[in-house]
Structures are given as C-alpha cells and as structure tokens.
Design goal:
InterPro entries: AB_hydrolase_fold, FrsA_esterase, Galactose-bd-like_sf, Xaa-Pro-like_dom, Xaa-Pro_dipept_C
Structural class: alpha/beta
Number of strands: 25
Largest sheet: 11 strands, mixed
Shape: globular
GO molecular function: carboxylic ester hydrolase activity; dipeptidyl-peptidase activity
Number of helices: 11
Low-confidence stretches: 1-11
Distance between the termini: 44 Å
Family: Belongs to the AB hydrolase superfamily.
Strand content: 25-35%
Mean pLDDT: 95
Pfam families: Peptidase_S15, PepX_C
Keywords: Hydrolase
Length: about 500
Amino acid sequence: MLALVTWAAPAQAAAPTTGFRFIDITVPDGTVLKANVIEPTTPGRHPAVVFPASWSLNDLEYIAQANALAQGGYTVLSYTPRGWWASGGEIDTAGPKDIADVSRVLDWLVANTTADPSRIGMAGVSYGAGISLIASGHDSRVRAVAALSGWSDLVASLYGGDTRRLQSSALLVGSAALLGDTSDEFDAIIDDFYANRNIAGVKEFARLRSAGTYLAGINANRPAVLLANGYGDSIFPPNQLIDFYGALAGPKRLEFAPGDHAIPELTGLIGLDNHVWTSVRRWFDRHLSGIANGIDTEPPVVLRSLTGGPVESYPNWAATSTTTSRYGLGEVNWLTGTGRLGGTASTGWSRRTWFNDDTVAAGGLVLLSNGLQALTGIPPTAWLPAVDRDNAGVWLGDEAGATVRIRGSATVHARFTPTERSGTIVAYLYDVDALGTGKLITHAPVSWLNATANTTRTADIPLPATSWDLPAGHRLALVIDGHDGLYLDENGWLGSVLFSGQSWLDLPIR
C-alpha cells in the first residue's frame, strides 16, 4: 500500500529496530483488530505511539512514520479500527466501541512490548485523529496526542451552518461501502441524513462521536494535544478546532496550513520531509521522551499563509488579528447589479436574488480544489463579471491602498427576506485583481428549515479561518448565491431572497 521510506530521526542517530511484525488483537466482544508493531532493540522500556488508521485505510498507512519513530527510540503500534479491511466487527465511526478498543489496544501494548505505560501517545490522520482525541478523554494512559486533519465537532462537520455536506459525506459513505462493513445503525443514520429527517437523531449520533463532548475528561487527564489542519479542509472545516483548542487545559499547540483534508501532512506518510510530521515528532520528543527541544516554549498558534510569506506564530488565537474592520453592504446599482462593499452599513435599499440557477462562484471540489491550492498556490477562482447578478448578490470593495493582512475568521451579517419556508445561501469572499479575476479566500453556507416565508431574517455566517494577504490595488468582493456542489441546499426552483440593509462583513485584520 505505502512504500517503506525511512525518515531520519532528528538530533540523534537511527537506532536498530525489530522490524515490523503483524499481530492480531482480540477485544472482549471477540472482534479481532489487525495491527503491526515495531520497536527499538535497545534495552529497557520505551516511549510509545499508537496510530489508529484513517477512514478507509489500514494499519499499513503509517509504516514510514512508524519506522522513523522506532529508529528514534519509540515502540510504535498501528492498527486498523473495527469494520475496516481485515479487522472484524462493524464500523463504529469513532463511537463507544472504537474508544473501548483503544483501551484494549493499550492493554496489549503494555503487556506485549517494551512500551512504557507512563509514556504513551496517540496520533492519526482524519479518523485516527478523531479516535485519538476522544480516547484521550477516556484513558488516562494517553499522555500526548497529535491529531492531524481531525475534528472536534462532528455535528458541525455534517451540518455546519445547518447545511448538509454533499460531496464530503458521499466520499466517506462510498469508501465505507467499498472497503468496510457498515452497521445497521450507520446505514440508518446515513439514510436519515440524506433524507433530511430525524435530524435530532443524526446530530446525537454525531455528538457522541465528537471530542468536544468529552472535553471535561480530556482536561481532567491533561494530555499534551497538538492539532494540525488545513484552512480548506472540506470535511472538517477549521473553525471547530479553534474553539476546542481554546478550551483545552493542558499543553497544546494549533497549526493551520494551506490545503484540504489530509493534504498538509500527506507527503509525510511516504516518508518525505513534511512540516506537520516534523511538529509531531518534536511534540512527542518533548512530551513523551522528555527532550528539551523548545516546542513547549514557542508561541503555540502557528499559521502558514495561503498567500506565502514567513511562518507566523502567536501566543493564542486572539492575537492572530489586531482589529476587526466592518465593511457595509451598500445599495446594489440597478445597471451593474453590483453594490459597494465598504463604509458604514446603510439602510433603505433592497435587492432581489433568484436561486433558479447556480453561478460561477463556487467552493470547488472536495479534496481536489483546495488540495491543488496547497501544491500550486492557485485557489478556486471566478471571474466576477461572469457572476449572474440575477442569481447572486455581489458587492465589490475599493482598491486596497496597502496590503490587507486577513487573519482569522470573517463573519457575514446578512439581512434578507426569503420567499420560501426553507432555503440556503452561500457566502464567498474573493480577492479580485484589476482584470476581475477573483481568488477565493474563504466561503461558507447557512440554511433555514420550516421558517415563516416572506419574513425578514438575519444570518451571521462565520467563514472558515484563513491567513491571506490582499495586495495593494486588489479589491475584496462578497458574493452570495444559493447553490454550491459541495452542499445539499434547501432552495426550491422558484425561491428567492430580498437582501437589504443593515448587512455587513466583519473582517479580522492584523
């Protein structure tokens, strides 16, 4: 599956290892979990790391990193969670059975390897990240966690802005059908999700599988927690991690970088030099091996900009921006179909937008668009003159006189009157050059269900956090339409909304 590529341990020579051995771990309900383990050959007990495999992958996923860690003195166990590949049982989606399995895996680790039970860490990408975080609130033996492209709030991941995710859920469900064994409960929940019924039941299913639900236990155990995600994660958007990070009581670190789900750390899985895995190694070296490498004294909030430039570090999330600028949404010109973005939010204007068709404003394709941005620096784009003004509201700012350093999560405050009881709007923030080409900075949807039609309402739409420098001479543009292929929207064919003042954009700036 993954080629074995070694990665030299920093600041020390590679130690000989036992090589990989493949094992079966049987948990109390009889389920057999497939796993592999690799250890140093040096005498005595060793710090240990446990890797639960990602959704749709197996325990071979972490071979390169496990080998590197073992050469650095760690006992490393990787396993395939229940229901996937050759492991027994049914997919539990980081539920109670999965979390109980972690404790049984730790029991096996302590009993059958040289792992030091007082120096155990867990790490993983995506599914492995979520399982590791939740497990740290249930088993106090987990002393450090590195959660990469993970989640803390599965409800927000499925229903952020009360809007169902289409492409990301289809990707997860499709891979489960192909490579896993789903349970009747999982199948019923997915059916309800797509049918838009039993919403409370689906959200409860997700809540029980969210690290934020177990925050009290995590804080009681006080593991050292490293969180690392991409700004453009289309499966687990980053804002949920900001609140979770802020509430953690133990040692903690938060890193954001360009990319979609599992993209920032991807090259490290095949053993290539990778900034995320470098942080993981330093994190475990400090909190499991006791090496004074300074990572615990550095500013713990780390931002790598979507527009390049040096890596920025801050003492906390609040310090990433120094002010919030409010850009009022002005009256839309009847001839151009465009309103002014900037100045005081005005009143006395309105603009009707129909949602019959989509526009060229779009968030892209799950994994692909933001993944390519991380590799090429090119985000999803839209030519602003081509945005259909009948099917979108468009507001364009003045040319920036100097670089505008956007840091954090912008918020769109929209005031509108929908003609339908249910609907969706999607807000896009663009960086527009002199030719009208807009680079997508960030975007998010919001939906409403079974409300009163033809009644004015307001929506505050928090856009996913970002680090973006708007160059001098460029303009900000806000586009609001009703459709995006990433989402299951609630708009009817003949639905429309009447936008009006007071509406605005709040932009965090440094």
